[in-house]
Design brief:
heterodimer, A: mainly alpha, MetI-like fold, 13 helices, B: 290 residues, mainly alpha, 77% helix, 0% strand
Chain lengths: 313, 290
C-alpha cells in the first residue's frame, strides 16, 4: 500500500513538469514584450531596458526557466509585476472565497447528485428516472453564467431573498457567508450534479442487478438500507472517479462564477492578471490549479483501496 | 421465415421506416431537428434578422416589440438580430474545434496506442495538458496571441485534444491484440497500413459520438471566453459577449441576457441530445455503461 502511494506520488512529477514547461513556454514564446507593456506608452528605451533587466527578461530563455523552476519547487511563485507583492501573498489574500465556493459547490453537488442518481436507478425506466436524466442533460447544457443570472434574477432581484453579488468572510459569521454563497454554488454545481447523477445512476444500475441485492431483498432488508448500505457502497468507485475528474470542470467554472457573482477570489485574480500580462501571477495560479487537480485525482486513486478492499496494488 | 421478413420489408413503405427510426431514436431526431433549425437561422441570418451592429441610442433598453422582436440592448441594438448572428460564431467554433481536436487526437492517439515506446511520453504530455484548467489555458492563449476567431478556435481545441487522444488510445489498445491485427502483422503488413486499414475503422463510431460532446463543450467554452471578455473580438456579436455587455441591466432589461442565454442552452442541449442518441445508436455497449 505504502509502495503504491509512493509510486503514485512519483508519477505526478512528470505531469507537473510538463505543466511547468507548457505554462512557461506559453507565456515566454508569445509575441509582445511584457517590459514594454509595464513601462507604458510614454516609456523611453532605457526605461524598458531597466524593467527588462529587473525582471530578468534579458537573460537567455533556459536560464530564466531554470531559475523559475528552482523558485517554484521551493514554493516561491515570484513577485507580481504590477503590485510588487509576492504571488503567494496575493493568492493567499484571495484564497478564502475560492476555497469556500469550491467546497460549498462540492457539498451541494454531491448531495443532490447522489440522491438523484440513486432515485433514478431505483426507479429505473419510470417517470422519476426520465425526469432526473432529462434534468441531467439540461444541466450539462446550460452554461454557469446563464444559470447564475437566472438565479440572481429570480431569487435576488424579484424575490429579494439573497444579495445579488459579493462575498463576506466566514469569520464575520456563518449566516451571511452562506447567504451569499448559496446562489453561486448552486449555479456552479448544476453541471457537476448532472455529471455525478448520471454516473451514480449507471453504477447503481449495475450493482442493483447483482445477486446479493436480490438476496438482501429476499431476507427482508429495508429499501433504504438496501440502497445505501448494500448498493451505493459498492457502486462508489466510479462515482468517486467522476468526482475527481470533475474537479477540472469545477476549477474552470470557479473562474467564471467568481466573475458573475463578483467574488474576490483566485479566479478573478488570474483573469485580471492575464489582461495585464502579469506573468508571475498567471504562471503561479496555473501551476497551483494544476497541482490541485493532480492532487485531488491522486487522492481519488488512493481512496479506491479504502472504498473497495478488493482493489489491490 | 426469410420470406416473411422480406415481405415485411417490402410492405413497409419508406415513410414507415422513417417513423420507425424516429420512434427508436427520439433524441437523435429532437437534437438533429433543433440543430438544423439553428444552423439554418445562422446560415440565412441576413434574411430573417435586421442589422446586428447598427445602434440607435434613442431606442436603448426597449422591451420586445414588433420592430425589435426581443427588444434592444443598452446601446439600442437589436437583440434578436444579434442573437441570430451570434449563432454563427457558436456553430463555427463548435464545428471547427470538433474537427481540429478529433483529427489531432486521432493522430496522437493512434501513434501512442500502437507504438508502446512513445506511449508513456505522449500520455504524460496529455495528462499535463489536462491538468491545466481549460478556460485559463484558452484565455491565456487568446490574450497572448491576440483575439481573433481563428485564435479562439485553436485555443479551445488544445485542451480538448487529450480527451480525444485517450479515447482513441483505449480503442487502439483493445483492438491491437485481436487475432486479425496479429494476422496482418505476421503477414508483414506495415504499421501505417495496419493502423489505417485495420485499426482506424474501430475508432470511428466512438469518435463520432465524441465529436458531438467536444463541440458542445467548445460552444460553452467560447461563450465563457466571450463572457469574460477574452474571446472573440467584441465587434462580432456572440452570445457570451451579449450577456457580458448586458450584465448591469439584468434587473431592468432581463431579455438582453435571457435571449442569448436560452439560445446557448438550446444549442448545447441539441448537440448533447444528438450525442446521446448517436451513442445509443452506434455503440450500445457504451450506452449501457453510461
Amino acid at each position: 500500500m505504502m509502495a503504491y502511494i509512493v509510486r503514485r506520488l512519483l508519477a505526478t512529477i512528470p505531469v507537473m513538469a510538463i505543466v511547468g514547461i507548457f505554462v512557461f513556454m506559453l507565456l515566454h514564446l508569445s509575441p509582445g514584450d511584457p517590459a514594454a507593456i509595464i513601462a507604458g506608452d510614454n516609456a523611453t528605451e532605457a526605461n524598458v531596458a531597466a524593467i527588462r533587466a529587473r525582471l530578468g527578461l534579458d537573460r537567455p530563455l533556459y536560464e530564466q526557466f531554470v531559475s523559475w523552476v528552482w523558485q517554484t519547487v521551493r514554493g516561491d511563485l515570484g513577485v507580481s509585476m504590477f503590485s510588487n507583492l509576492p504571488v503567494t501573498t496575493l493568492v493567499m489574500q484571495r484564497a478564502e472565497p475560492t476555497i469556500a465556493l469550491a467546497l460549498t459547490t462540492l457539498f451541494v453537488a454531491i448531495t443532490i447528485a447522489v440522491t438523484l442518481g440513486v432515485l433514478a436507478a431505483w426507479r429505473a425506466g419510470t417517470l422519476v428516472d426520465r425526469v432526473v436524466m432529462g434534468f441531467a442533460v439540461m444541466g450539462f447544457s446550460v452554461p454557469v453564467f446563464v444559470v447564475g443570472y437566472m438565479l440572481v434574477y429570480v431569487f435576488a432581484i424579484q424575490l429579494r431573498w439573497v444579495p445579488v453579488q459579493g462575498y463576506q468572510s466566514i469569520f464575520d459569521g456563518i449566516g451571511p457567508w452562506l447567504h451569499r454563497l448559496i446562489l453561486p454554488s448552486v449555479a456552479l454545481g448544476l453541471a457537476y450534479v448532472a455529471l455525478i447523477a448520471r454516473i451514480t445512476r449507471a453504477s447503481m444500475l449495475e450493482v442493483l442487478a447483482e445477486d446479493y441485492i436480490r438476496t438482501a431483498n429476499a431476507k427482508g432488508v429495508g429499501t433504504g438500507r438496501m440502497l445505501l448500505r448494500h448498493a451505493l457502497k459498492n457502486a462508489a468507485v466510479p462515482i468517486v472517479t467522476v468526482i475527481g475528474i470533475g474537479v477540472a470542470l469545477l476549477i474552470s467554472g470557479v473562474v467564471i462564477t467568481e466573475s458573475v457573482f463578483n467574488l474576490p477570489g483566485v479566479g478573478r485574480l488570474v483573469v485580471d492578471a492575464i489582461a495585464r500580462r502579469d506573468y508571475p501571477i498567471i504562471q503561479g495560479v496555473m501551476i497551483l490549479f494544476a497541482g490541485v487537480y493532480v492532487l485531488v485525482n491522486l487522492t481519488v486513486d488512493i481512496a479506491y483501496t479504502f472504498l473497495d478492499p478488493r482493489i489491490r496494488y | 421465415m426469410a420470406t416473411a421478413i422480406s415481405t415485411g420489408d417490402n410492405a413497409t413503405p419508406r415513410r414507415g421506416k422513417i417513423a420507425d427510426f424516429v420512434r427508436r431514436n427520439p433524441t437523435i431526431v429532437v437534437g438533429g431537428t433543433l440543430m438544423s433549425l439553428i444552423a439554418l437561422a445562422a446560415l440565412f441570418a441576413p434574411l430573417i434578422a435586421g442589422d446586428p451592429l447598427s445602434f440607435q441610442p434613442i431606442n436603448r433598453l426597449k422591451g420586445p416589440s414588433a420592430e425589435f422582436l426581443l427588444g434592444t440592448d443598452s446601446l439600442g441594438r437589436d437583440v434578436f438580430a444579434r442573437m441570430v448572428y451570434g449563432a454563427r460564431i457558436s456553430l463555427l467554433v463548435g464545428l471547427s474545434v470538433a474537427a481540429i481536436s478529433i483529427v489531432a487526437g486521432l493522430f496522437v492517439g493512434l501513434t501512442a496506442g500502437y507504438f508502446p515506446r512513445l506511449d508513456t511520453f505522449v500520455m504524460r504530455l496529455m495528462d499535463g495538458i489536462m491538468a491545466i484548467p481549460a478556460i485559463l489555458l484558452a484565455i491565456a492563449l487568446v490574450s497572448l496571441m491576440g483575439a481573433s476567431v481563428r485564435v479562439v478556435i485553436i485555443a479551445i481545441s488544445i485542451p480538448e485534444i487529450p480527451r480525444v487522444t485517450r479515447l482513441v488510445r483505449s480503442v487502439v489498445l483493445s483492438v491491437r491484440e485481436l487475432p486479425y491485427v496479429d494476422a496482418a502483422r505476421s503477414n508483414g503488413t506495415r504499421a501505417f497500413k495496419i493502423l489505417r486499414r485495420h485499426i482506424l475503422p474501430s475508432t470511428i463510431p466512438p469518435l463520432i459520438v465524441q465529436a458531438t460532446y467536444v463541440s458542445a463543450s467548445a460552444i460553452l467554452t467560447e461563450a465563457g471566453l466571450s463572457f469574460l471578455g477574452a474571446g472573440t473580438p467584441p465587434e462580432f456579436p456572440t452570445w457570451g459577449n451579449m450577456i457580458a455587455q448586458s450584465r448591469l441591466y439584468l434587473s431592468i432589461a432581463p431579455w438582453t441576457i435571457f435571449a442569448p442565454g436560452i439560445c446557448l442552452a438550446l444549442v448545447v442541449l441539441a448537440v448533447n441530445l444528438l450525442g446521446d442518441g448517436l451513442r445509443d445508436h452506434l455503440d450500445p455497449r457504451l450506452a449501457r455503461r453510461m
